[in-house]
Amino acid sequence: MVTKLFRFYFSLILFIGLFSTAAHSQDDNPYGDLDDVEAVQWEDLMSEADLNAILNAPPMSHDFYGWEDQLSGGSPEEDAYMKALQSFDVNPEVLNKRILIPGFIVPTAFNDERMVTEFFLVPFFGACIHLPPPPPNQIIHVTYEEGVSLENYYEAFVVMGELTSQVVRNDLANSAYSMNAEGVEIYQY
Length: 189
Prior knowledge:
By secondary structure, the chain is an alpha+beta fold. About 20% of the residues lie in helices and about 30% in strands. It is globular, with a radius of gyration of 18 Å. Residues about 1-30 have low confidence and may be disordered.
């Protein structure tokens, strides 16, 4: 119940912030009908098994050098956790829907004006750059023909478009999801 209420208020805040009449009039709305857009959270992209494995991760200490060295393997919890960290399993309930999701941009292609036209959308800053990438089912490969100006890698963006399960493999990361973005805006907290 609390999660449903949080999602409702989160969606409401995002829609008011991004698509209010102060920001866009009805005539200026480049996104079309917004009635069928669903605000999603990153955990909504994971399969139920992967989400359970991550939430029930084996205990690890931060006193040692590598977290991977602490996993000896063999226990069902460790095996499920390690599988979830590499998973391409998608949640069919979010596929082929127009969604709105906040995240951070990791550029993969630019146009002649140095606008980002292809990127990975990731759930936390530094993913794929300074830290190991999230699981493929926590990465969305986004194409945005219009391009977005990325002046600050620390800024979060909200991306809207239809989510598909097209796998994209890249030297930087692998994604289980893809999207042709209809809009990309700086996330307003």
